[in-house]
Amino acid sequence: MSPWGAVPTGWTSAGPAGWAGMPGGPGGVGGAAGGTAPGRAPAGSSGGEGPSFLQELARALQQLEGTAGQADAMAQRLLTGDVQDLSQVMVATEKARLAIELAVQLRNKALEAYQEIMRMPV
Fold first, then answer.
1. What ranges does the record give for the region Disordered, renumbered to this chain (predicted)?
2. pLDDT tens digits for range 35-83
3. CA distance 57 to 71
4. What does the radius of gyration of the chain's CA atoms come to, in whole angstroms?
5. What is the DSSP letter of 53?
6. How far, in Å, CA of 114 to CA of 33, rounded?
7. CB-CB contact of 113 with 92 (8 Å)
8. Which of 61, 83, 90, 115 lies 20 to 30 Å from 1 when distance is taken between CA atoms?
């Protein structure tokens, strides 16, 4: 299971389908089962001090999920009458909306960069 919940469609617990044997994939050069490419840190480690990119990404996604959950909880409490101040609910909802919008923009930029790299002639 991925660190942020369900495994996306077309993915296995080891990564995307068809990833095995590819560079960086399980069984491939630098993958979990295939050892490490020269000059590269093993998958899941940062190779230096501090958390790896994957750990930071997982932490950020958990934080995003927490922000969205907090906004949902505030909206439910407003509906049940537990919260009297509408502005608190609006602020929590707006924080969640902005966080989700930022995450989507970052995903789009990462996907754009990946597609640009894939179009490069080798």
1. 1-53
2. 444 445 555 555 678 899 999 999 999 999 999 999 999 999 999 999 8
3. 21
4. 19
5. H
6. 24
7. no
8. 115
